[in-house]
Write a sequence for this structure.
């Protein structure tokens, strides 16, 4: 049975030493969360998910969610009690507005906690995760009346939320949505249609479920410009805001999925359900994007989360399992065999995972802090820079983290050999659970296209130029630093590849949009690797500073070795990305459809 | 529900046009199989697996194998009838010795057929696959008495076979085996111990199961030098060779696996079971290697097989599903959306799979022909060259094909978006089934080590030098060929990388064995990519020759585009492999065990 220990001290090191958290001490929005509060929240959050949430991971997979004949859904044994404890602990509204009962802590803290929660149990953590996403969309776009009726219950987690986009014939292409909304005399709408793949769509964890539904108002223009967003509760609130009449939305089925069995992925049938418009008519996609951007970050974090828990269990196995001998002769001749860790290729697999995890965690902290800065900084330049970074890096974090999250779960499974394929060891569940993150909230190919077609050219390329400028400055400043400089060769090369790739794209992407499309996936990974390399550089700098202050310890010193491994063994991939993308679209587009 | 069409015409093109099958017309062993016989066998085999074996793929996954309270095992519905049809059709003994009831066709034909069978249903095809492997080991090492008693039944498939290596505490490290064999007065042994992960270990498809079991004779030396191989039947044959007394081997459990649910992976408990020595005492590993080498090729083919069937279904979806618009404007403005194939990144995924599949199939044909040449050629130089190639390429075919097989199943699943994650579409089963091939028959890391530590240095590096020489010669000969030359730039570069990597290994691997270990995985993939690139070069040459003869058709011409794609988009990875492996072992070995 897998175990999990949340990496609290690593998170705190990143915050304090790498991102100089002290500098936010008096910043608006951060003042509620001095570092001791952050530490207390993360420590308590870690304990909670380790003790309450993680033990349900396997039972959730085994039992799954069951739809009963009346359309109600029963979640796996133990989920209900754990969800109640999650609500009672105030974990749902950690970063929500105190005006609606939230704890008012900065958003980044909720993001950091979500790594732990998802590592412990991704299927479970999606219930509060989606609630937060739906609440964020309401917060930004809903009328005050809707807000005051729904947000207090969603902030505590008493009621949960969902997002309803997909229909059988349309996923990415939301312009094809057929679900209809008919305006009623009282200002509400009746919603009719079918939605599929609705995570947390129906369950027994909460008294009510608040669905945010994309639908087309009768007579609306075709395509995405005719899509509106509606709030459709499972139960209509009564006059006191409590549970009233059952609304016309029913769970038609629970999908049979490869993984995340503990989450109830529902087919929802809307049959004249009562709903209220959120935001403006025909501007539903715009309103939904608030939810989607947060959700994309959240899904990226799931990739890191699974990578971390998979690593921990594979490393524990490799330290325990004895098989074969070290290549240079027995390491422990008195034992029948050496531990797996003596084998270079086993180390390679573990180090590839670990060197990703630590840099990815730094990347997550960086982007999560940017989220708060973009919203709260009094300085417009800081706000703009943070918003640029957030926009540029959201698809990267989603696409790259979830690709690595899955690949790393597969590598961790490989460390266990045959046992990795056996359900009882839990590694194959990580692989199955990790797989969805590459697909939902916009498949990773869609993230890559969002990056090259929207985020790169936006504002004349300001965001990517700022990133390249920041890394260049870091490298220039480090030139004279004899201790730091030896760690930076790989990053220098990667940055050069990124610059060439950006140049290639700006020259060839406009000329032929297929050049941008064919380059997109490699560009996303090239940017991701460079950003991870930059994170390693910043970590190394922080470690060296700690060592210079005489504060080092083995766990911190190990980071220097990991940085070296990343630079020598993982960054070289940027060259292959550059070569592939600059080959252009010709060989990608040439084969006629009938030849496939 | 997925479908499958065996790529018979592609196989025949490779045989006839790329590998000049006509040259074998009068060669010993091949004379039974002129090209029209090959075509007839493959065509009929394709029809059989498409109609009989493939339709059981999903039910096998859903139902799995059930152990009954008496220790018997029930296979999924339909497996028994299909297996009987497989036996009746003579498919088990296709390439077996006619002296024991086989059809005496060359081995390569059985390999080519096994691609189709595994694509149709990997869990099912393992039953006859393991029978062939066990029979091959008996053929080479068993006494005439054992052969005449068991081989006739195994050749037809009336009885099936297994290989019993793994025990709970040992997988790769067979020196740790604890199963005991006590010599009896009648020359037999009694076998006692527990084996796990035994594929096809207990089932209801055949009247008897012939287990080949590694065990330690009482008093044997420790380690691998004290392991012997035994034949232990489920039922002891009676005086007439029929089913006699039940032997002391019982299925203790069926493993709960990630995939290949249709195959009964058993825990087998041996409690004083009667067995007979196969080959010499304490030379069991040597005898088992015959089985293992064939099995490794077979597992490699499974990688290609799943990659092919996954591709076919993803391509069909991409031609049918309409979502979004072509980047340069609607391709079919009268339709609500364009087909997925207009999107460059969807094409990228499909082309990466397809460009692997076609070259991998060529690689498989090449190695499979080498298997027959090594055994049958009257020319000692040809035999030696074929044997060298077979030895060098077996770990590559196993490791590289199964890595791509899995990665390609994942890519194919991605093409379907959310539907890829839903069981009913069948794509996620391909992913789960493909995963085991990277693990069993020696995890891919073990293949890589076998390659660099054993196969490369063998005979002073004769095999790798022969391969490098062959590709160099091909490139040199093509220099003047204006039509062919433009396709060869990528291969030229890849070959250079391979040469540098080989040089690096011969310089640094002996100095420090960990350098070889840390380089092994990248070297395996670098050699694999170069070999696939060489296959594409030979395919292109054959296509150009066909075109020059005026024999081309669109399916054949498409290969030129795929070759170009492979060269531009897949071969550049060789540079990253070279960079990584020549970084050496230092950063891999530095982290102390307690820091993991």
């Amino acid at each position: 049975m897998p175990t999990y220990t949340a990496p609290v001290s690593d998170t705190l090191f990143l915050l304090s030493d790498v991102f100089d958290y002290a500098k936010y001490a008096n910043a608006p929005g951060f003042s509620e969360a001095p570092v001791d509060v952050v530490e207390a929240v993360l420590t308590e959050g870690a304990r909670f998910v380790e003790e309450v949430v993680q033990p349900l991971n396997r039972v959730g997979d085994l039992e799954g969610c069951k739809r009963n004949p009346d359309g109600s859904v029963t979640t796996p044994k133990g989920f209900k009690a754990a969800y109640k404890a999650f609500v009672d602990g105030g974990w749902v509204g950690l970063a929500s507005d105190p005006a609606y009962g939230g704890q008012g802590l900065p958003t980044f803290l909720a993001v950091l906690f979500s790594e732990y929660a998802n590592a412990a149990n991704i299927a479970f953590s999606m219930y509060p995760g989606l609630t937060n996403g739906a609440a964020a969309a309401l917060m930004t776009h809903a009328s005050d009346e809707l807000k005051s009726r729904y947000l207090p219950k969603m902030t505590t987690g008493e009621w949960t939320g969902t997002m309803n986009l997909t229909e059988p014939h349309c996923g990415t292409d939301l312009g094809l949505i057929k679900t209809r909304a008919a305006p009623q005399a009282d200002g509400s709408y009746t919603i009719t249609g079918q939605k599929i793949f609705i995570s947390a769509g129906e369950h027994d964890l909460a008294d009510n479920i608040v669905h945010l539904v994309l639908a087309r108002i009768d007579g609306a223009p075709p395509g995405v410009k005719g899509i509106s967003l509606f709030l459709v509760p499972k139960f209509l609130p009564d006059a006191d805001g409590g549970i009233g009449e059952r609304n016309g939305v029913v769970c038609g089925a629970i999908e049979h999925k490869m993984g995340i069995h503990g989450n109830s992925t529902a087919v929802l049938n809307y049959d004249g359900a009562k709903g209220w418009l959120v935001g403006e008519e025909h501007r539903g996609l715009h309103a939904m994007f608030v939810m989607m951007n947060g959700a994309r970050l959240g899904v990226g974090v799931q990739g890191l989360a699974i990578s971390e828990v998979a690593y921990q269990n594979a490393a524990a196995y490799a330290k325990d399992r004895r098989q074969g001998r070290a290549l240079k002769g027995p390491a422990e001749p008195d034992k029948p065999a050496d531990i797996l860790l003596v084998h270079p290729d086993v180390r390679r697999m573990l180090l590839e995972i670990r060197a990703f995890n630590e840099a990815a965690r730094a990347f997550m902290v960086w982007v999560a802090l940017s989220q708060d800065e973009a919203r709260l900084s009094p300085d417009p330049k800081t706000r703009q820079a943070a918003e640029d970074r957030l926009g540029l890096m959201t698809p990267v974090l989603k696409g790259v983290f979830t690709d690595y999250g899955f690949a790393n779960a597969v590598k961790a499974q490989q460390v266990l050999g045959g046992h990795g394929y056996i359900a009882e060891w839990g590694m194959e569940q990580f692989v199955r659970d990790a797989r969805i993150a590459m697909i939902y909230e916009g498949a990773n190919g869609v993230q890559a296209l969002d990056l090259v077609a929207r985020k790169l050219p936006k504002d004349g390329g300001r965001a990517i130029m700022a990133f390249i400028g920041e890394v260049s400055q870091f490298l220039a400043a480090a030139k004279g630093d004899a201790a730091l400089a030896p760690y930076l060769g790989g990053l220098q090369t990667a940055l050069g590849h990124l610059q060439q790739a950006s140049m290639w794209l700006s020259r060839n992407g406009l000329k032929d949009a297929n050049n941008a499309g064919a380059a997109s996936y490699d560009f996303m990974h090239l940017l991701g690797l460079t950003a991870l390399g930059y994170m390693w550089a910043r970590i190394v700098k922080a470690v060296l500073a700690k060592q210079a202050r005489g504060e080092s310890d083995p766990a911190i010193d190990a980071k220097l070795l990991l940085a070296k491994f990343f630079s020598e063994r993982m960054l070289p991939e940027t060259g292959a990305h550059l070569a592939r993308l600059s080959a252009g679209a010709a060989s990608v587009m040439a084969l006629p459809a009938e030849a496939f």
User: Anything to note?
Assistant: DSSP finds 18 helices and eleven strands in chain B. The radius of gyration of chain B is 24 Å. Chain B touches chain A through 96 residues (CB under 8 Å).
